[in-house]
Each structure stands twice: as structure tokens, then as C-alpha cells.
Write a structure and sequence with these properties.
Blueprint (H helix, E strand, L loop, with lengths): L1 H8 L6 H9 L11 H15 L12 H13 L7 E4 L7 E6 L10 E6 L18 E3 L2 E3 L7 H16 L8 E6 L9 H8 L1 H4 L3 E4 L4 E5 L2 E11 L1 E10 L3 E2 L8 H13 L9 H13 L2 H10 L6 H7 L3 H7 L2 E9 L5 E2 L2 E10 L5 H12 L5 E5 L5 E2 L15 H14 L5 E6 L5 H6 L4 E3 L4 E3 L11 E3 H19 L2
Parallel strand pairs: 3-6, 3-7, 7-18, 8-19, 9-17
Antiparallel strand pairs: 1-2, 2-6, 4-5, 5-20, 8-9, 10-14, 10-15, 11-13, 12-14, 15-16
Helix pairs in contact: 2-14, 3-5, 5-16, 9-10, 10-11, 14-16
This protein binds zinc ion (ZN).
Length: 487
């Protein structure tokens, strides 16, 4: 069965090169597993990170995590000139470590991009203390065990292990551990690429914040690699009115006017679109699905696409989000008193914009949809600042999967999970990859972390990671860092 998946996946155009390598290397060499000492070091780093509160709150500090990591690298013998602890705020210091090539490299560096902050977690909501690294039933519990201190620890441990073993890459490898991916005013990825590009400039980025291996009842079904992502944008809708006494209602009413706009939004669907990544994704998925779903997936890939098939698939929120820009009301407020006509009503509409469109373009579409000159549609930045217009920047259309990433990625994934198909995907969430994509540096998301599809607990309560998944990702990154380092 797994062999069939791989063979079928190979007939998809962008996979020809990849599969050629995967199959030609079928005589597998044994993947070098981490030793007990390597594992112990990785877990110690993981524990230290989980037990450091890196939330964007008064109690939290990113620097409290990056400062001890800086010491680990210096103690291991990395020169101070290659270890940079920098940031625009004393609590938000990013750590950028450069693992030097032997001699003068011909290729640009490879950057591993890892955010080290986490979203808030309240002890009262959890079974365990979210800032304690708790081992239970083959899992580690704690905030960040899935998102993404698991990968932070795996990559720090990988860099230290390679250095200890005296590994000499042909090109520089860079590890950036950054602040405020989850929110906050000092996004480290954006700050680094825009103000210290020389430290993070790279041929491409590997971002383990997305992508990974899906498990269904313990069985790996697919290895997903994020090759593009939607753009996150919030819009603030406001209606105002002169108000008055509620005993004397009039037809004009700020709340009703806002509701009318929201009802239009509820009934609206953005146009169906595909790009190179989602095409490949659905072509691969069609081979695993059966019946009507498989037929529909093939039908949307036809030219022109079958819109009835697209409508049927769109009933799944997950497929729907792959097909189009989505905008949805997420917050609502209004009115001043129980016995007064409202003078203001406001809603937040959250949009996930398909690559190739800008937030301003979507804002204009919303204005056209509402067609109410009294209703304002403003843009709300990540930092919460409200402005009359939105950025014109578009997420770039995805680059094709490149061999120097996908060849080793596919090969090593196959060594860990034999026969598992690898597919590029479009991420519906947003990650720091966007800042690098906008700077012209392609970014691929892959964690090599295997999770049950119904046990994704990132941002949720009782976040946990299977221990076995951590060991596998550790083996993956060790082999992968060497493969790209030798490229
Ligand atoms: Zn994350």
C-alpha cells in the first residue's frame, strides 16, 4: 500500500524529479539515530524551553529563553562572532547562530527559522502546569510542546551535535530563534530580515512551524510541506449614528446597519482559485480518496474547473479554505446603554487571503460588497493599529518545489516512514515564512513531527507531544541539516 502511494504520487509533474531520487536511493543506508547522550541533551533543552515562559505578557520573556541558549552555543565552542543575541527590545532578543562552512562556500546559506515565543496558557485551564515539562504516558506536556519548542530544541540539539562531531558543511547553516511570531510588537523574523538581512540572508528558509506528518490511528498518511501560505488580515467595520432615546426608535440604527453588512458577508463566497501548490496537493489527495470526493478533486483540476464539484468540496471547511480567500466575522461590539439608541457598532472581520491578492484589494472588495457609504472598513495591523487603508503587498505566488530541498527531505522522510508520500501544501494559517517570502527568499515549512490529525493541540489546553515523534524529528533534522549542508 505505501509503495503504491509513492508510485502514484510520482506521476504528478512537480514530483518527477523528487520521485526519481526517492526511488533511485531505494537501497537505503541506515539513518544515523541519535545516541542516548544526544537524546538526553535534546530533552534537557526542550525542558528548559518549556519551563521558560516566552509569552507576550508581563511575566513572559523571549530573552529568558534565548540568553541561556546563547551560553550553550558559546560553551560548545561556537565563536562569539557567529552567535548573535539581538533585538529591538530587551525582553525580545532573538538568537541567530551561524554554523560556518569549511572554506569559502559556493552556495548561499540555509536558514532554519524557529519562533521561540508561545501563546498564553492559563494554569486553571490545564490538567498540568503549562510551564512545567511533564512526562506522562509516552507524551510530554507543556505549552509549546507542539508549537514549536519541540522543533526549537531539535534544531539547537542538532547544531550542537554536528559541531561536537566536527561536521564541516560546504555552506553556512543558520539557526534563527525569534520573538513574537504569535503576536506582540517585536516580530523577530520581520525585524531580522528587514534590519539585519546580512545575518539571515539565505538561499531558502526551512521553517518547522508548519508542515509535518499526519497520523491516523498511529498510521502515517502523508508528509505535508508548506510551500506557500495565505495572508492574515483583520478589518474593522464601523457604523455610527446620532443615537437617541430607545423609547423613540427610528429606522436608522447603527446595530441594524452593521448587521446588514455582516449578513451580506455571511452570504458571500470569494471566487474559486488554485495555484501550483494546491493543484499538486489535490492531485495527490485524489489518489488517496475514493468515490465522489476523488472524482470531485479530479474535476476541479480540469480546465475549466467543474464548479459544481468545487461547491461540493467547499462544504468541507478545510478544502474550502484551500480554494479561496475567506473572511469571517470574529468579534462584535456596539451600543452605549440598554435604554439608548446605539451611536456606534463595530465588528472585526478576519480574512485569510489567497496568495496573489493584497489586503487592500480585499478591503476594496469588502467595501464593494457592503455598498454602504456610511459603513467604514479599516485595516487592523498585527500590532492592533487601525488605519484607513491596508497594505498593497501581495503574498508571492508559490515557487515550484526545489530539488535541493525536496530531494533530501523526501529521501530522509522515506527512511523514517517508508513509502510515505510527500506533498507540498498551502498553509491556511500564517507563519513567519511570509516575511522571508516577501523579501524574495523562498520558505518551506516542515517539522518532521508526526501528530494524530485529531490531536493537534497547538494554542489549546494540555498541549502535548508524543515522545516518539520528538525522536524521529531529531533524527530527521540531523540527517537533513547534513544533506543540505553538503549540497
Ligand atoms: Zn507556531
Amino acid at each position: 500500500m505505501p509503495t503504491m502511494h509513492k508510485k502514484l504520487a510520482c506521476s504528478t509533474l512537480p514530483f518527477i524529479a523528487i520521485c526519481f531520487f526517492a526511488l533511485s536511493l531505494a537501497a537505503q543506508d541506515e539513518l544515523p539515530h541519535a545516541s542516548a547522550a544526544d537524546r538526553a541533551e535534546a530533552v534537557a533543552i526542550f525542558k528548559q524551553l518549556i519551563e521558560t515562559n516566552t509569552t507576550d505578557t508581563p511575566e513572559g520573556s523571549v530573552s529568558a529563553a534565548t540568553e541561556p541558549l546563547e551560553m550553550r552555543f558559546l560553551d560548545a565552542g561556537f565563536p562569539q562572532s557567529d552567535v548573535h543575541l539581538i533585538g529591538p527590545d530587551p525582553k525580545k532578543l532573538n538568537l541567530v547562530v551561524r554554523y560556518r562552512a569549511a572554506g569559502k562556500p559556493d552556495e548561499k546559506p540555509v536558514l532554519f527559522l524557529c519562533h521561540i515565543d508561545v501563546v498564553q496558557a492559563l494554569k486553571s485551564d490545564w490538567t498540568t502546569d503549562p510551564f512545567k515539562f511533564v512526562e506522562k504516558d509516552g507524551y510530554w506536556y507543556g505549552r509549546g510542546t507542539q508549537d514549536m519548542k519541540d522543533s526549537d530544541a531539535a534544531l539547537v540539539a542538532t547544531f550542537l551535535r554536528l559541531h561536537r562531531e566536527g561536521y564541516k558543511p560546504k555552506r553556512d547553516l543558520i539557526l534563527a530563534l525569534t520573538a513574537d511570531e504569535e503576536g506582540g510588537k517585536f516580530n523577530g523574523a520581520s525585524w531580522l530580515v528587514n534590519t539585519h538581512r546580512e545575518l539571515v540572508d539565505a538561499a531558502y528558509v526551512i521553517n518547522p512551524d508548519s508542515g509535518g506528518v499526519d497520523l491516523e490511528d498511529g498510521r502515517p498518511t502523508v508528509a505535508a510541506v508548506e510551500a506557500t501560505e495565505k495572508v492574515y488580515s483583520d478589518f474593522q467595520l464601523t457604523t455610527t449614528d446620532r443615537g437617541g432615546h430607545s423609547s423613540l426608535p427610528r429606522p436608522d440604527n447603527a446595530i441594524y446597519e452593521l448587521m446588514a453588512a455582516l449578513e451580506k458577508l455571511q452570504g458571500y463566497t470569494f471566487p474559486f482559485e488554485l495555484n501550483e501548490v494546491t493543484r499538486t496537493y489535490f492531485a495527490n489527495l485524489a489518489r488517496r480518496e475514493t468515490g465522489q470526493t476523488a472524482d470531485d478533486m479530479r474535476a476541479i483540476l480540469a480546465n475549466p474547473p467543474d464548479m459544481a464539484a468545487a461547491a461540493r468540496l467547499s462544504e468541507s471547511p478545510s478544502y474550502n479554505s484551500n480554494f479561496r480567500t475567506t473572511c469571517v466575522a470574529t468579534r462584535l461590539s456596539g451600543g452605549d446603554a440598554n435604554n439608548a439608541l446605539p451611536q456606534i457598532a463595530q465588528a472585526i472581520v478576519n480574512c485569510r487571503i489567497f496568495p496573489g491578492h493584497s489586503p487592500e484589494e480585499i478591503r476594496q472588495q469588502l467595501i464593494g460588497l457592503f455598498s454602504d457609504p456610511k459603513l467604514s472598513v479599516k485595516y487592523v495591523s498585527d500590532a492592533g493599529e487601525v488605519s484607513d487603508t491596508a497594505p498593497e503587498r501581495k503574498a508571492i505566488s508559490p515557487p515550484p518545489p526545489i530539488a535541493e530541498v525536496f530531494e533530501p527531505l523526501t529521501k530522509i522522510t522515506d527512511e523514517i516512514w517508508p513509502g510515505l508520500p510527500v506533498t507540498p501544501i498551502m498553509e491556511n494559517g500564517a507563519s513567519d515564512s511570509i516575511y522571508f517570502a516577501q523579501a524574495g527568499i523562498p520558505s518551506y515549512g516542515y517539522s518532521a513531527i508526526a501528530l494524530e490529525v485529531d490531536d493537534v493541540r497547538a494554542h489549546g489546553r494540555d498541549e502535548r507531544l508524543p515522545e516518539d515523534s520528538f525522536w524521529k524529528s531529531l533524527d530527521f533534522f540531523y540527517a537533513f541539516a547534513k544533506a543540505v549542508g553538503d549540497w
